[in-house]
Amino acid sequence: MNSDSFDPEAEKQAVAPDAPESPSRREFLETTGATVAASTVVSFATPAMAQSADTAAPRTAISVSVNGVRHEVEVEDRWTLAELLRDAIGLTGTKIGCDRSECGACTVLMNGAPVYSCSQLAVWADGAEIRTVEGLARNGELTPLQQAFVDNNAPQCGFCTSGQLMSATALLAANPSPTADEARAALVGNLCRCSNYNAIVEAVVAAGEGGVA
Amino acid sequence: MRALSNHDASSISDAVQAAARARAEGRIPAFSGGGTDLLQQVKDGTDPANVIINLRSVDEAREIEEGAGGISIGGLATLAQVMDAAAVRTRLPALAQAAESVGTPQIRNVATVAGNMTQRPWCWYYRNGFNCFKSGGDECFSVNGENGQHAIFGGGPSFIVHPSDLAPVLVAFEAVFQLAGPDGEREVPAAEFFVLPRVDPVNENVLGESEMLARILVPSLAENTVSSYYKVMDRAAWTHAEIGVATVIQRDGNAVVDARVVLSGVAPIPWRLRAVEEFLTGRQITAEVAQEAGNMSIGDAQPLANNRHKLPMTSAAVERAIIGLAAG
Amino acid sequence: MTQPTRIGLEPLETIGNDTPRIDAVERVTGAAQFTRDVKLPGMVYARVLRSPHPHARIVSIDVSAALALPGVLDVITHETSPIVWGSGCVSGGRQYNDPIKDATIHRRYIFNNPVRCVGDSVAAVAATDRNIAEAALDLIEVEYEELPFVLEPEEALADDAPRIWPEGNMCPDTRNQFEPMTSRIGDVEAGFAEADRIFEQRYETGFVHNAQMEPRCALATWEGDKLTLYTPSQGISNCRHDTARDLGLQDHQVRIIAQYMGGGFGNKNQNQDADLVAAELSRRIGRPVMLEYTRRDDWLGVHGRWPTVQEYRVGVKDDGTVTAMQLRGYSGMGPYRKNSGGISGMDYYACPNRLREIYPVYTNRTTSGNFRAPSDPHGVYGVESIMDDIAYEMGIDPVDFALRNMRRPTEEMQFTNYLLEEVITTGAEQFDWQARRRVQPGSDEGPLKSGAGFSFMMFRAGLGTSSAVVRVDSQGQYILYVGVTDIGPGAKTTMGMIAAEALGVPLSRVEVVWGDTDRTPYSVGESGSRTTIMTGYAVVQAAENLKRQIADRGMPDGADVLIGTATPVPTTDGLIRQCFAAHFVEVEVDMRMGTTRVLKYTAVHESGRIINPTTARDQIRGAAIQGIGQALHEDLLYDPRNGQPLSPGYYRGRHLTHQDIPDIDVTFIETDDGYGPFGAKTAGESGIILAPAAVANAVANATGRRMRSLPITRDKLLQEVSA
Predict the structure, then answer these.
(1) Which residue from B276, C77, C599, C715 has the least number of CB within 10 angstroms?
(2) Architecture of domain C35-147+217-292 in CATH?
(3) Looking at the predicted structure, is the pLDDT value of residue C404 above 60?
């Protein structure tokens, strides 16, 4: 697996400034008044969890790093990683298109490698480093890949975009100057029903070193 | 998803013991390497598992090692590992090609060799919840239904095709599977791991309850052995093989000393073409020989109403696989 | 970036310049909030139980065990909630007309009894979390009396076929008459008498699901008697009106919020049953309800393009002039007629004698409805297949055959402008048609055979009513209020660009407020490729209105603002307004594997003036690729014995991936006919119309075999080759 370590500066950021704040996150910040650092242990109950009356569902406490922020969280064993990210942590940039590993909208990086978060249980992410689309931009500054997506009209409806970005981010980490064919091979697990494939590949190639935007 | 519990296994031994324990308690365990397909089946209700034995927490059985006797591949090695491993790429190119042809990068990053080998059939009746042989029922709905993707060899009473791309390659390499169960370990030749529906209509392999595929040993190949995996899909990626051809040939000069030709996607198990292998032995591979091998490959085929197109495909695929390997 | 080739017009100040979407950053950072991303305090989740049978009467439903599950708040069924979903089954497929909805005798409810296809809604559960809601579905006990079913439209018309509706299986028209849709021009029998040769052929096309990435969902919440619906709707104004009518409310009592949405391609027009189910559950339990469709729910419970059978008869003179065209068509509408069932394409020809009879037929397959150019790609495939065969049979280049026979302006029928010949000849030249096509189809040696095909079209670009509001403050900042959603084509950006151009200010000075019926005026909706020309024209007029006010009164001072509005009713002065296109495709067919690979694809479009070349280019490229998928892969297979769908979803559907498609070359021939916003015409739908025909013709040219059924899958191709 290719590793995708975060730069230390970014790790100090509690929440990427561009990340939409989830109610749970906001609630946490308000109740503690803390500036959350990467090393801080974050623990919170989500509205969904608080309301859950299905006491029969087994639960497990896990520790997972998401975009450089460590979360100590109790999950239902049946939750997918996508559910953890979207519902409990409030990072809704990760989309669920098929919930069956057929479309790729839910792609996130797990320890640097693209995975379908709809097809991973949240408990399996215990101890893992997860990176989502909200973890790409730093201090409001887009990554070259994100900027290339903007410049090349890579998103149409935008629903598959997060997944395409995460697969492409992993590609660029391993291969800074991919060809169009290499981009197609790396992103083949990410469907786009707007079928904006040409533009997405153009964006990925443009984002590579020596690429032409 | 319905309620289930996850058990992080600490070792292979712990995993199989935990599975046995769950079974004894009346629950239904399932091993999870990458988990991608397992979760689809649990969500769809086609797999009744309610205890997931998570193997990510297991440190053993992940390595790919080359030793004096051959190459050892942990059952928990990922397909991404297999396709990237230098030993596999240089010694067992067919296996690297097969691994690379599976699914998508997201799947290969988590999917394990053992999981690929033991994945359930992708028959649309089984996967859509029909109460067929594979679900414990007593009918194969493809027989009088839509059987365009079903078996032309070895079918009956179920006509599923085995979905693994790695399996025919490992059969062709005459690999040995190490199985671990609550009662200890055992070894089974790859070809004997998979069973026809006429032997066992429910299960595709000999794994016992709470037993898992722990390791695969590919014995050292003779000098001048070449191999390839040729796969035909309905789109560029993320489908199972319409047909796959694993070919392993040992040559002396231009003449074939020994050959293995094993198919995926056309039979309920990896389908070995012994007649083709014997025909190739002692011959030089020419266009005519490859064509004849292709023609011979469907000698035993028994197509259903809608899968006759698999016959010319199989001939063409075998011919191309052989000629491609000879040329490469 | 691969920019489209553009011929004809120079860019204006803003319009015509490649412009990144004004909301592109939100789309690449995860900040764009789609409906499922919304969370409201106290929100609960809902799931729908669907019929496992293709046709069955519900004898009884027992929801007590489901209600007893901790966390379950409510279960609704046809007994508790007999709500008519007006746009779900409308006689004649006319979706936009209240009197027709009132008149129709075949009413679709949010839960129906009998259930008429696998996937028909039976009940819905609200619970405190989605997993509990899902678990509760298993606890609803339904006793069904299974009924006989029928899957194929022609079989459904047989006298002894199972009746899906009491009157039989022909869909009624707007007058509740059970007649085929008939269009008669000239005297077709006289035309055949005049012909030297008569050709006959039969074609079939499959069900193609819209397969938009975002499955349907709806979040409903009530404050008193006002309903707010967050829902991915392509037309918030229509969705509001439909929802109000279906729930017995006034329009102002419904607020629709639909900003970012994950595609629709016609799947999210009007309101959907999900909207009504969420609203009903929320009303009953007094909490916000998020109803999420699973992918399977979406595949089987919403709709896709109707499958068809098309039987053509064409008369031709020895000189290649078509004298008569006849089509008898059957469209499988599923059990509810959600759209017309139309089969178009014959109207691209000048032939004076034409007869078209189309039978929209109920079947027990999943429902058919709008998918991008609803009546066109399958029809053009049929027409262009027989025309292509005729051309080669008579030794005429298909391009010449088209130029000889295609519709042109006449004394009686004048166009605002007419570019059909230009798009064809330009495309033929750019594609190098003569070099790529095989004069003798199938003449390549060896198993890999190449060939080329083409098709052409004209598509409505008529004008219509929509509204816009523009406001300016004393700082010179403009706010444009338009009731568009942004389904993918980039309407929000396009509307901003049109406003900037019309106001004479940079785009950065225009903020766009969109996607919320309480904050924006009526808009026609993101369907029928009408937003740019209709709402765009309203934007121009609102800007003109505002500029007149500024000219009269000067810019506003202090806290004052000026507001320009417009709801224009534009006409084309009796002229026909069409956009035009021709597509050229080269394929390579592996005759031994039955696989088809698209090698080269050239699309030439005339869509008037192009507002934003970047997004227009990608409308054409994306639509063409969807059309390639329709040509080669997509279908929904059913088991004939038990009426069960076997291949829903992206894996079974073999939807095209990054590695399956070539670069699509796009050329725009730009014109300004003096109508619409700065001369803009339609674009979004037109790109999909030609791909299936052009690909099928290319396959015929490569192989020398005519594939008479879409999709052209390997099994069909190999069967044809071995025949």
Answers:
(1) C599
(2) Alpha-Beta Complex (3.90)
(3) yes
DSSP letter assigned to residue A73 = E
Q: Which residues pair with B11 in a beta bridge?
A: none
- Strands C578-590 and C468-473, bridge-based pairing: unpaired
Residue C494 CB contacts under 8 Å (≥ 6 apart), including other chains: C531, C532, C536, C611, C612, C615
d(CA C291, CA A40): 36
Q: Report how far residue C146's alpha carbon sits from residue C601's, in angstroms, rounded to the nearest whole number.
A: 48
Residue of chain A nearest C665, judged by CA positions? A198
- What is the distance between the alpha carbons of residues B200 and B202, in angstroms, rounded to a whole number? 6
The pLDDT tens digits of the residues spanning B193-245 come to 999 999 999 999 999 999 999 999 999 999 999 999 999 999 999 999 999 99
- C-alpha radius of gyration, chain B, whole number: 19
Q: What is the pLDDT of residues C240-293, one digit of tens each?
A: 999 999 999 999 999 999 999 999 999 988 899 999 999 999 999 999 999 999
Q: For the sheet containing C322-332, what is the strand order? A: C181-185, C354-361, C322-332, C308-316, C197-205
Summarize the confidence of residues C64-69 as an average pLDDT. 98
The CATH code that applies to domain B225-327 is 3.30.390.50
Q: How many A/B residue pairs have CB atoms within 8 Å?
A: 87
B128 near A CB under 8 A: no
CB-CB contact of B160 with B171 (8 Å): no
- Asked if the Cβ–Cβ distance from A188 to B80 is below 8 Å, we say no
CA distance C17 to C496: 13
User: A 115-174 residues with CB below 8 A of C?
Assistant: 132-134, 136-137, 142, 146, 149-162, 165
Q: Is C649:C633 a contact under the CB 8 Å cutoff? A: no
Identify the residue whose tokens are 């691969």. C2
Per-residue pLDDT reduced to its tens digit, C460-489: 999 999 999 999 999 999 999 999 998 899
Nearest CB to B6; choose among A60, A110, A186: A60
The complex's ipTM works out to: 0.97
Q: Domain extents for chain B?
A: 1-53, 64-118+160-219, 225-327
Q: Is C262 on the interface with A (CB under 8 A)?
A: yes
Please report the DSSP string for B198-216 in residue order: TT-SS-SB---TT-EEEEE
- For domain B64-118+160-219, say whether CATH 3.30.465.10 is its number: yes
Residue type, C693: A
Residue C405 burial by Cβ neighbours in a 10 Å radius (0-12, 13-18, 19+): buried
Pick the closest to residue C565 from C679, C426, C470 (CA basis): C470
Q: Is the peptide bond before C711 cis (omega within 30 degrees of 0)?
A: yes
> What is the C-alpha to C-alpha distance for residues C544 and C547, in angstroms, rounded to an integer?
5
What average pLDDT does the structure give for chain C?
96
* Subunits in contact with chain C (3 or more CB pairs closer than 8 Å): A, B
Strands B70-74 and C72-77: unpaired
Instruction: Give me the residue from C31, C260, C650 closest to A191, CB to CB.
Output: C650
Evaluate if pTM is beyond 0.90: yes
B148 near C CB under 8 A: yes
Q: Which residues of chain A have pLDDT under 50?
A: 1-54, 211-213
Number of A to C CB contacts under 8 A, please give it: 215
What residue ranges of chain C are covered by domains with CATH 3.90.1170.50? 35-147+217-292
Q: Number of folded domains in chain A?
A: 2
pLDDT over 60 (residue B90)? yes
Between chains, do A52 and C294 touch, taking CB under 8 Å as contact? no
What top-level class would CATH report for the domain C1-8+406-461+578-723?
alpha beta
User: Which of 3-62 (A) contact B at CB < 8 A?
Assistant: 54, 56-58, 60
Q: What is the pLDDT of residue C94?
A: 55
How large a percentage of chain B has pLDDT more than 90?
A: 98
